[in-house]
Amino acid sequence: MRRLFLFITVLFLLIAEITVAQTASNRTPKGTGGDKEPVGINLSLWKNIATQSSDTIGSTCFNLGIYSSMNRLNGLGLNALGSVTERGVNGVQASGIFNMVDGNMRGIQMAGISNVNENNLSGISLSGLVGITVSHARGIVFSGLVSIIGEGSNGVVMSGLLNIAGLKSSGVHLAGLANFSDESLNGIATAGLLNITGGELRGMQIGGLANITGGSMRGIQIAGFANVVGGGATGLQIAPANVVRNGKGLQIGLFNYYKENFDGFQLGLVNVNPETKYQLMLFGGNTTKLNAGVRFKNKLFYTILGGGTHYLDFSDKFSASLFYRAGLELPLCKQLFISGDLGYQHIETFKNKDYGFPARLYALQARVNLEYRLTEKLGIFVTGGYGGSRYYNKGVTHDKGMILEGGVVLSK
Prior knowledge:
mainly beta; Porin; 2 domains; 18-stranded parallel barrel; 8-stranded antiparallel barrel; 6% helix
């Protein structure tokens, strides 16, 4: 083993001597008008044990070593541990642990842990854990854990965990957990959990949990829980909850909200804005005996969420229901209003299932309501309608018939 080490050391020294001699003979003396940098081969055991010193003004066309430090690489560099290049790389740089370039990187980088580029990256960077580009990245950046870009990116940025882009970015950002863009994003951001753009979004965000845009948005947002736009939104939002300052386009979700104005259509179970009236409804009838619900009223349209007790008779054991209704209200005169709505009701019979009743049912219902406003905060209403309850597990009607109800409306 000792003999093999001595042989390798002697071999490196011989190659170093030959290379230095060739480099010296090819060097253009000062004052002759030549401007070409000397080119050599860097065979390196360590930073200061190499055929080219790190402070040389020349460039390297081929590098092979354990840990290398070079002025410039124009060609191929292969290192077991790491590679440091002072000025720039044009070509391929591959290391077992890390690559560092103080200048521009043009070509392909591969490292087991990290690639770090001080200026621009043009090409492909592949790192097992972290990829860092302080200025711009143009091309493809792939990191197993985190990709960090200081100024912006053009192309595709992918990481297993996080993508962080400093300023203006465009292209496609793909992350297992989250994408962060400080100023703007023109393109597509897809993350398993979260997409955040501090400024403007022009394109698409797809997040498993949420999409957040601090400025304006033009495009499409799709999220598993919520879409939030701090400025104006033009386009499409699809999520259980959609929130905008002002918007133009379409919101589809369970809960939709805008703060100032919205020119478009909101399709949701509950649509809320600063002009929404929140009204408490207490009523009873021949179907669900005692009910309480909240009505969200926006000009002509409204939705109601609520629950009731004793879908069956009072003589039976306890049963209950949850309901949702959506409808339209029109004024007949100053204090008299007529409205109509369609509703869905989920019914639980609890212990009644032991006495011949199904465990749960659903009902589809249609109602026409007359409401008289006694004051601004108090009204009374009567309802007539028709509905039927059915089994969930088979297309059979349990019962059907007329609906008669009456109650009061309490406004804020």
